[in-house]
Each structure stands twice: as C-alpha cells, then as structure tokens.
Write a structure and sequence with these properties.
The chain has about 550 residues and is mainly β. It has a domain at about 390-560: Beta Barrel (Maltoporin, Chain A), CATH 2.40.170.20. The protein has three helices and 26 strands. It has a 22-stranded antiparallel β-barrel. A two-stranded antiparallel sheet has the order 20-21. It has a two-stranded antiparallel sheet with strand order 24-25. The longest helix has about 35 residues, at about 1-35. Mean pLDDT is about 85; it is low at about 1-15 and about 20-40. One of its GO terms (cellular component) is cell outer membrane.
C-alpha cells in the first residue's frame, strides 16, 4: 500500500510541474500575445489524474497433517553372559574394640590442713569426699580457728561442721545437709578504764544447727517439667538464753512452653519464732509467691514477673503482723554488641528478713532483739553495661536508685556502749554506683578490681544511716608460678560509718586500707606448705564503733592431700 501511494503522488507531482511551467511561460509571453491579439485566449482541460494499482497477490493455502501412529510393539531380546568373580580377600568378622583406661587422674578427695599464727591462732581444717560416682556423692568438712588480741577479751573462735550429699536416682536428685556452727565473741568495745567486767560478763556464744533436704526431678528431655522443692530447719541460740527456730519451705515449678519461652513459679514460706527467757514469743514470717515469664533468645533475655508478699510491717495503725505487698520483678539483658556490650536493666523489689539470726550475723555485738521486728523492703531500679573485651578482659557497671523501708540500723547502747541496739529507719533512699573490671589468663594470672559507692540520703526517722559503710573497694590478684607456687593478694579499702554520740550528735569512724597476702607451695603431689599474712598496714580500724580490729597477724602451716 505504501508503494502504491508513493507512485501516485509522483505522477501527480510530475504533471503538476508541467502545468506550472506552462502557466509560467504563458505569463511571460502573455503581454506580447495580448499586444498582438488581445481577443485570443488559451484553454487547458485537465481530464483525470493517474492512479496506479497493484495486482492482487496469490496466496498459498497449506494444511499440515500428522502421520499415522505406529502401534506395533517391537520385540527385543537380551543375552547377558554369566560372570563368576573369585576374591582372594576374605572379610574378617566385626569385633568391638576394648575400651582404654580412663585417663583422668584420680581425685584427691581428702585433706588435712593445720597451722598456727602470732595471735595465738590455731587453725585446723579437714575434708573428706566421696569422689566420682554416678549414683551419689557426699562430703564432710570440719574447721576450727581462734585468735587472742592485745586488748583484754579481744578473742574469738569459730567451729564449723558440715556434712552434705546428693543421691541420683533415674527420676530425681535428692540432696541434703546437716551443719553445726559455733561463733564465740566477747564484748570488748567499752572503755576499760571506766568499766571492769569479768570474762563471763562479756562472753557471747552463738550456736546454729541446720538441717536441709531437697528434691529435684530429672527431666527426660529439654522440654521437660522441672519441680524443685526444698525444706530447711534452723535452730539458733546464744549465751543469754535467747533462741530462735526458723522453718523455710521452697518449691519451684518451671516449664518450657516454646523453644525460648519459659513459665515458672516459686513459692516461699519463711517462718521464724524468737523466744527470750520470761518473755512472750515473737513471730517473724515472710510468705511470697514469684510467678514469672522468661524469654531467652540469643542476645536477649527477659524475666518478667511479680512478687506478691505477706510479712510484718507498719500501717496507719502502727505495727501489724501481716501486711500485703505487690512487688515488681523485671530483669532484662540485651546484647548491643554480642558478648562485648550488654545492656542490663531491671526493676526489682524484695524483703530482707530481720530475724535474730540474720541481725547477729551482720553485727555479732547486738544487745537485744526488737519486740516489733519489721523486715526491710528493698526496691531497686538499675541500669548498666557489662561484657567482655577480647579473650581476657571483662567488666560490669551498674547505676541504681534504691529505696529502703524499715531498714535495721545499729547504735551503741546508752550505758557502756559495748553492745548495739537496733534502730528502725522507716524510709531511706540511696543512689548506688557499682563498677568492676577483671583480667583472666587461664590459671596463670587473674586480677579483679571492684567498688561500690552508696549515697544515703533522705532518712525519715534517723539522723544518719548508723553503721552503714558508704564506700568499699577490693583488689584481688592470683598468680601461679611453675604450677607449684601460688600467690594471692587482697587489698580492701572502705570509708568510715556514722555512729551516735549523744541524742542529737554524731561522729564518724575512720576509713582504712587492709592488705592481705598469701602463698602456697606444692612440695609434692600430696604435701603443700601455706602462709597467710593479714593487715600488713597494721591498721586497727573499727568496723563497729568501739571495736578495734586485730593489727598485723600471720598464720602458716602444712596441708596433706590424699
């Protein structure tokens, strides 16, 4: 079609050109002709235009068809010749190889350690263990140490006996222990120029008997249900006919519901009864339930729960024997950089029980047990970072805001000051900074530095936080030389604490540093020589007002292992 139109246009253009040429010529010669004969006129007739056409193309109609299908089945025959193979090698029947002997060295489960020091300090320790066993293990430990200082009645002695063991059945682990602890001290923190006491007047002896049994099921798979109950009974008394019975029952339930999600609940009943001669019994109980949900993923951990608790406390009417608290229990760890930078934060709250045994362990020079004991509620909100640097360094920091309710504080009594009374601080706030960094190189060298600073403020009822140490730090180092000589060192530093001077006056004890060094040398496989030197600065600091510590003291001896 395109070609046909092109040819037609060319012919029209050709004849049109001729027409314009003729007209142009006429215009040039027109005046002359007009002059000759103005009556003569020219006429041009256009009959038609040329229109070329192409012939119709002849089209071929082709129809394809498939050949007829061949349905005949070809017959094929195979002829495989038989081939017989003769092997020269005859296989040896399989037989199990004999197991080699255990290459693990035999354990030295038993030891005896004896020594003596400059402050008339005898030390005797002994331990017996069962060793490796798939069905059970047990151990027995005995310890005795005592010293006599330069101040009159500045002597003490400790006796500790512990027997514990675990039995492994196909379904359960059953563990138990029986222990006896005896701690004898003397009230020597008084003005010896003003008061004259006999040794019987100032001697205090605490006796503690402990019996505990626990049970834990052994899940058959990682998705198993964990059930862990335990019961403990403690009898505690002193030299002044005061005794306390404590029964504690705990039960933990834990179940994995998904690959990285766990549900758990723990119930605790801590019941104590204090009895003093010719006085009524005093009960101090703490009962709580800890339901929680835990999510443990690579680089992420969340513990979200609550801590409903019933215990002694105060309300608008005064002291009550049972008060309900709903406490938070939330802890999170998120890896910002895997294992190197971990963000740790939490909002937790719990009770610190102020029964007679716990108060005497804090301050062995306690005078009497308060008639209305309130347990300390501690609520802490914290955040910090921790992690590792390279393959040897590790660090941990924490910044906390803490609220204490019914905090137990200790002040010297009003008579001679040798014992301490318990004061109850209804509410106190503090800001805490904790930091530590450590370096570990296998078993050859280890060092760790840690410190805690507390800014106690806003006491509601007491003038100062009596007896609390606001700052403490520790440097610990261990070095092994040629696998025979082992050196240890500890440097302690702490600030002083406030003590009451008069009803409205106070003072503060001095801070101090305490450096301790120790060494152990293995003479052979079974013999070890040891020595410990304490308070190398010979600082007679006072942890509790009026009670000077021992100065420099050194103890050394020998230990046999078998």
């Amino acid at each position: 079609m395109y070609q046909k139109e092109t040819l037609g246009m060319n012919r029209i253009f050709k004849y049109s050109t001729r027409l314009f040429v003729a007209l142009g010529a006429g215009l040039l010669i027109g005046p002359a002709a007009f002059a000759q004969d103005s009556l003569k006129q020219a006429t041009i007739e256009l009959i038609s235009t040329y229109q070329p056409k192409l012939r119709d193309a002849a089209k071929l109609n082709l129809t394809a068809s498939l050949p007829a299908a061949d349905t005949s089945r070809a017959r094929m025959t195979y002829d495989i010749p038989a081939l017989n193979l003769n092997f020269m090698y005859q296989p040896v029947p399989l037989r199990p190889l004999a197991l080699g002997k255990d290459s693990v060295n035999a354990l030295q489960n038993n030891f005896v350690k004896v020594g003596f020091g400059n402050l008339k300090t005898p030390l005797v320790q002994a331990g017996i263990g069962s060793g490796r066993n798939d069905q059970y293990n047990f151990g027995l430990f005995v310890n005795y140490i005592g010293s006599k200082g330069n101040i009159e009645y500045q002597d003490y002695n400790n006796v500790n006996v512990l027997a514990s063991g675990t039995y492994y059945s196909p379904l359960f682990e059953i563990d138990g222990k029986v222990a006896y602890n005896r701690n004898q001290v003397h009230y020597y923190g008084y003005d010896h120029a003003l008061y004259d006491y006999s040794k019987a007047d100032v001697k205090q002896t605490f006796n503690e008997f402990i019996g505990k049994i626990g049970l834990k099921n052994r899940p058959t798979n990682e998705w198993g249900f964990i059930f862990k109950p335990a019961a403990e009974f403690i009898y505690f008394n002193d030299a002044f006919d005061r005794n306390e019975r404590t029964f504690t029952l705990k039960a933990l339930l834990r179940k994995q519901i998904f690959e990285d999600i766990y549900l758990q609940a723990e119930g605790i009943a801590d019941l104590s009864t204090f009895k003093e001669k010719d006085l009524e019994s005093i009960n101090n109980n703490v009962v709580s339930i800890h339901p929680a949900l835990e999510i443990a993923k690579p680089g992420f951990f969340l513990h979200a729960g609550a801590n409903p608790t019933w215990t002694n406390g105060y309300d608008n009417t005064g002291f009550v024997k049972s008060k309900f608290y709903l406490l938070p229990d939330i802890v999170n760890e998120t890896h910002l950089v895997k294992k190197k930078l971990i963000l740790s934060s939490g909002w937790i709250s719990y009770f610190e029980k102020n029964n007679f045994r716990n108060l005497a362990q804090k301050n062995p020079f306690i005078d009497s047990y308060p008639g209305e004991p309130a347990n300390t509620r501690i609520e802490e909100r914290y955040t910090g970072i921790k992690g590792t640097i390279g393959g040897h360094f590790n660090y941990n920091t924490k910044f906390s805001s803490i609220v204490y309710e019914n905090m137990a504080l200790f002040v010297n009594n009003d008579t001679d000051g040798k014992t301490f009374n318990v004061r109850n601080e209804t509410e106190m706030k503090a800001f805490q900074v904790h930091a530590e960094v450590g370096y570990i190189e296998e078993e050859k060298f280890q060092v760790r530095v840690s410190g805690d600073w507390f800014n106690y403020r806003k006491q509601a009822t007491e003038l100062k936080p009596w007896g609390l140490v606001p700052f403490m730090a520790n440097l610990n180092a261990q070095v092994s030389v040629a696998k025979k000589l082992h050196l240890t060192g500890d440097l302690y530093g702490f600030s002083g604490s406030y003590y009451l001077v008069a009803p409205n006056d106070f003072a503060k004890t001095d801070g101090a540093f305490d450096l301790n060094l120790g060494a152990n040398y293995d003479i052979g496989k079974n013999v070890n020589l040891w020595i410990n030197a304490n308070n190398l600065f010979n600082s007679e600091y006072q942890r509790w007002n009026g009670y000077k510590s021992y100065g420099f003291n050194i103890v050394g001896g020998i230990m046999l292992k078998f």
